[in-house]
């Protein structure tokens, strides 16, 4: 699946009004915190790393990111491509195509 396709398909589940961007930002922070908590518990508290739960939480983070981009008319594909270009510049020795 392409990022822009994901962005458009995910948008059908977005509800809200003029405060939608605030809701998205708060949701992103919340879901990111859940990912952090899973990693913290694994790293420092001896919990098992549940890949299925982690995958679902990462998906929630992806949804919020895609909808923040959608709300601002930013193609998610463009976000991903520009990030890769930045990383290629930052880490040229690790560049592989």
TrEMBL record:
Chain ranges of the NTP pyrophosphohydrolase MazG-like domain: 22-94
InterPro entries membership: MazG-like_dom, MazG-related_GP37
CDD domains according to UniProt: NTP-PPase_u4
Name of this chain's protein: Nucleoside pyrophosphatase
């Amino acid at each position: 699946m392409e990022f822009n396709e994901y962005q458009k398909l995910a948008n059908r589940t977005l509800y809200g009004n003029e405060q939608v961007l605030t809701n998205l930002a708060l949701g992103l922070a919340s879901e990111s915190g859940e990912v952090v908590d899973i990693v913290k518990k694994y790293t420092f508290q001896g919990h098992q790393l549940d890949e299925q739960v982690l995958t679902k939480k990462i998906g929630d983070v992806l949804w919020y990111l895609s909808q923040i981009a959608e709300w601002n008319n930013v193609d998610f594909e463009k976000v991903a491509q520009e990030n890769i270009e930045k990383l290629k510049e930052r880490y040229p020795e690790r560049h592989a195509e």
